[in-house]
Amino acid sequence: MKLRRILALLAALALTLSACSGGDEPTVEPDDGPEAPGEVQEEIELSLWIYPVGGWGNSSALSSMISSFHRANPLIKVSVREIDYNTGDQEIEDAVSLGKTPDIVFEGPERLSANWGARGLMADLGDLWSGETAGSIYDSVRAACVNEDGTSYIYPMCMTTHCMAVNRDIFEASGAWQYVDEETHTWTTEGFISAVAALREYGVENVGEVYCGGQGGDQGTRALINNLYGGTFTDPAHTCYTFNSEENIRALELLRSLDGINFNPSALGADEITMFSAGETAMTFCWNVANEVTQTISNPTLSFDIFPMAFPTSDGDIRLQGGIWGFGVFDNGDPGRIEAAKKFIRFMAEDVNMYTQAVLSLTLWPVRDVPNIYENDELMTEYFTLRKYMGDYYQVTPGWADARMNWWKMLQTVGEGGDISMAAEEFEAASNAAARGE
To answer: Which of 14, 88, 319, 359 is 20 to 30 A distant from 54 in Cα terms?
Structure first.
């Protein structure tokens, strides 16, 4: 099992390195023909800010692809700046206040659409959705990225299913493995409770961490709590927040009462991933396939078998959080820069070879069918089985930025022993006020 996983990870790394070294690049020629309306006619340098999505946590993963773009479009230069989830949002807000926003940002609909787009800061990319390539994007992704009136503030490139994972070695040694359905990667809420008890009896003090030091990785804690007893986070139409329910309150009460599950007010999702990878916890609530590839390659001391899991449920209705990421363009009032940014997006997304390179370097899934992209890759195939459990993409609900801030503060209150019902009520009230623009 470990050998299979190591070989798969090495294969994934080889694919990524191949993608970044320029293998199978599209044939590109400088566009020096007659200028069409909207074509770039003078040199422009675009700024691209990237959050650490998948393998793009390091800008070198983009270097070959950007070089290809430069050769095809010698008048358009693209500079890359890496930002992270701890400080990146504030850096964007500072840029907005100074009128110095980047031209392009790589992130998801919750920021590009529900936050900056809703505030009128982004350029409409609706025209990018009219081509043949866009027509092949999965309907579920389109629904999360295109508004009812046809406007769009994101052009998607990749997706994943967020999940949790367990340390299989210690689960087997402690007897907790009996509560896991190995074939379906699922377990019940009762099985989860029994597994935590078995691990504690075995001597594992810190079985799992409910991290709540900030919003980083909050998709994991939301999915954990919503799945335990079938609670919801928003209404189906994504107009309001519905967290204050008997099901979610019961889930919070369970987590706070379980010996071995600890609320950590100083940890973010990235911290919890590091702890799990170091063997300091028996499970992680903040996981996906990119985490496994990154952690295994970068952490030579990781010596146990990681087993990806769906979150436990009491009714079998599993709803994992999906992740969608793509390009958004800030509207800086210069139509020429916006058109140049769109040209870069088309270059990255519409050529099948370039798009395949991009997805492989991200170590995530394409948003449209790309034949054999991970053929014979056992690791990616294993994680692909979790895609069928993907739930509603509710991260486009109005007031999302405030709801995320309210979420980790609510978890801190619960972890400190505060009244759970009151904390849930206050979270929902504050988040719905933000959704109404109050």
So the answer is: 319
